[in-house]
Write a structure and sequence with these properties.
With 132 residues, the chain is α/β, with parallel strands linked by helices. The protein is built from five helices and five strands, in the order βαβαβαβαβα.
Length: 132
C-alpha cells in the first residue's frame, strides 16, 4: 500500500468515532484528525490536509455530511470521501449521489467492509499523486 494515507474522521458520536479510528488504524491508515460537525470538518481539512475523508451523513451542527461534502467539492475536488450512515433511505442515497464519493457504508461497519473502500480511496490518492 505504500506510505500511510492520512484519514480524517467526521463523526458526532464519540463512541463510534473511537471505534472507527481503531478500524482505520488496524487497516494501516493514519488518522490525522477528527471533527464532530461539518463546519469543524471544513476548518480542519484546510489545516490538516487529509488524503481520505470518512464522514457520517448525520452530524451535529448546521451542515449534514452530504452538505459538507458538497462544500468540500467546491474547494478540494479530489479528496476521496467514504460516507457512513445509519440511514439508507432512498432520499439519503439520492442526495449522496449528487456528490462524488468512493462508497456509502451502512453502520455499523466491520473492518472488512471498511477495507475495500479505503483501499480504493488510497489507490485514487496514489494515482492523483503520481499524476501531479
Amino acid at each position: 500500500m505504500g506510505p500511510f494515507k492520512k484519514v480524517m474522521i467526521v463523526e458526532d458520536d464519540p463512541l463510534l468515532s473511537v471505534v472507527e479510528q481503531k478500524m482505520v488504524e488496524r487497516l494501516g491508515y493514519d488518522v490525522i484528525g477528527k471533527a464532530v460537525s461539518g463546519e469543524e470538518a471544513l476548518e480542519k481539512i484546510q489545516e490538516l490536509n487529509p488524503e481520505i475523508l470518512l464522514i457520517d451523513v448525520q452530524l451535529a451542527g448546521q451542515l449534514n455530511g452530504i452538505q459538507t461534502v458538497k462544500k468540500i467539492r467546491e474547494r478540494f475536488m479530489d479528496l476521496p470521501v467514504i460516507f457512513l450512515s445509519g440511514d439508507r433511505s432512498p432520499s439519503v442515497l439520492k442526495n449522496a449521489q449528487t456528490t462524488e464519493y468512493v462508497d456509502f457504508l451502512l453502520k455499523p461497519v466491520t473492518v472488512q467492509e471498511l477495507s475495500i473502500p479505503l483501499n480504493k480511496a488510497s489507490e485514487m490518492v496514489s494515482v492523483a499523486q503520481n499524476a501531479a
